[in-house]
Automatic annotation (TrEMBL):
<dbReference type="Pfam" id="PF07686">
    <property type="entry name" value="V-set"/>
</dbReference>
<feature type="domain" description="Ig-like">
    <location>
        <begin position="133"/>
        <end position="224"/>
    </location>
</feature>
<dbReference type="GO" id="GO:0009986">
    <property type="term" value="C:cell surface"/>
</dbReference>
<dbReference type="GO" id="GO:0043031">
    <property type="term" value="P:negative regulation of macrophage activation"/>
</dbReference>
<keyword id="KW-0812">Transmembrane</keyword>
<dbReference type="GO" id="GO:0098632">
    <property type="term" value="F:cell-cell adhesion mediator activity"/>
</dbReference>
<dbReference type="GO" id="GO:0034113">
    <property type="term" value="P:heterotypic cell-cell adhesion"/>
</dbReference>
<dbReference type="GO" id="GO:0150079">
    <property type="term" value="P:negative regulation of neuroinflammatory response"/>
</dbReference>
<dbReference type="GO" id="GO:0043025">
    <property type="term" value="C:neuronal cell body"/>
</dbReference>
<feature type="domain" description="Ig-like">
    <location>
        <begin position="16"/>
        <end position="120"/>
    </location>
</feature>
<dbReference type="InterPro" id="IPR003599">
    <property type="entry name" value="Ig_sub"/>
</dbReference>
<keyword id="KW-0393">Immunoglobulin domain</keyword>
<feature type="transmembrane region" description="Helical">
    <location>
        <begin position="238"/>
        <end position="264"/>
    </location>
</feature>
<dbReference type="InterPro" id="IPR047164">
    <property type="entry name" value="OX2G-like"/>
</dbReference>
<dbReference type="InterPro" id="IPR013106">
    <property type="entry name" value="Ig_V-set"/>
</dbReference>
<dbReference type="InterPro" id="IPR013162">
    <property type="entry name" value="CD80_C2-set"/>
</dbReference>
<keyword id="KW-1133">Transmembrane helix</keyword>
């Protein structure tokens, strides 16, 4: 019965009447969102069935039908994320939930009338997608092998989306270098855009604020480059390691020395004739203190 209902849209000839699309003929939605398509027949003829189709690779894929006899019917491939928002013979609307990139395309609402045949409305959907943009900085070795050569700072800004995001930089006048940009295309029609460049460190991020701007139909954001990764570069990390080592070893050495002194002092008090010769580093004041106690 479902197959019979769906075939009604293709066996009748087009009628001279028209269909009013009650929403925008081209809608845009971000991936993961919802969208609703609405149509209304303006013919005075009797409507037998309403059919919804999606144009796929030059063919029409049946999505859903509504008729008085069979009620609401949704094809198996769409039942998980398509529902009727409104269902009458003269007006119909369907909603797509959790839109994906595969839902992009054009859709038809077909009113099968008697005796003239089918009248059709057409609308299209654009799906946008954008990932969380990333911006990072890091210290990299200088091409100059000299020991006192200044470190280089690498700056990178990237985002993945459909359509491809646009990346621009807000740079101080001293940076004349043009950022290098790379595009990586994926099979799901998304594009990763990476923009980066390097510059002699010289505390440039502390002296000049540098920002990365990402423009996209569903997102416009300005990101400030972080400086945390630069404040503890390779040299700073080495200095921090040395400071930690000194802070641990000095108290430990002092504790061991004090333990040794107490041990020899107590041994001398218990048996003065056994070891009369004290090491040179045991001072007389310390010896008198032990003898008086």
């Amino acid at each position: 019965m479902m197959v019979t209902c769906l075939l009604l849209s293709s066996i009748w000839l087009a009628a001279p009447a028209s269909v009013q699309v009650t929403n925008r003929k081209v809608q845009a939605v971000q991936a993961g969102g919802n969208v609703t398509f609405s149509c209304r027949s303006v013919t005075k003829e009797d409507v037998i069935q309403v059919t919804w189709q999606k144009e796929t690779d030059g063919a029409e894929d049946n999505i859903a039908t509504y008729s008085t006899m069979n009620g609401q019917r949704i094809a198996k491939a769409y039942v998980s994320h398509v529902s009727f928002a409104h269902s009458e013979l003269q007006a119909s609307a369907i909603s797509l939930h959790g839109v994906t990139l595969h839902d992009e395309g054009c859709y038809k609402c077909i009113f099968n009338t008697f005796p003239s045949g089918a009248v059709t409305g057409r609308m299209c959907l654009k799906v946008y997608a954008i990932s969380d943009p990333k911006v990072e900085t890091k210290l990299i070795p200088s091409p100059d092998k000299a020991e006192n050569s200044e470190k280089m700072v690498g700056m990178s800004c990237s985002a993945t989306g459909k359509p491809a995001p646009k990346i621009t930089w807000h740079l101080p006048g001293i940076l004349q270098q043009k950022p290098r940009e790379y595009h990586i295309k994926f099979s799901n029609q998304t594009v990763t855009v990476i923009s980066n460049f390097t510059h002699t460190h010289s505390k440039i991020l502390q002296e000049y604020p540098i920002t990365c701007m990402i423009q996209h139909p569903s997102l416009n954001v300005t990101l400030v480059l972080p400086t945390d990764s630069l404040e503890q570069g390779p040299d700073s990390s080495m200095a921090l390691s040395i400071a930690i080592a000194v802070g641990v070893l000095v108290p430990l050495t002092s504790l061991l020395l004090l333990t040794c002194l107490l041990y020899h002092g107590l041994r001398h008090l218990r048996d003065p004739d056994r070891n009369p010769a004290w090491p040179c580093w045991v001072g007389l004041p310390f010896l008198r203190m032990l003898q008086q106690s």
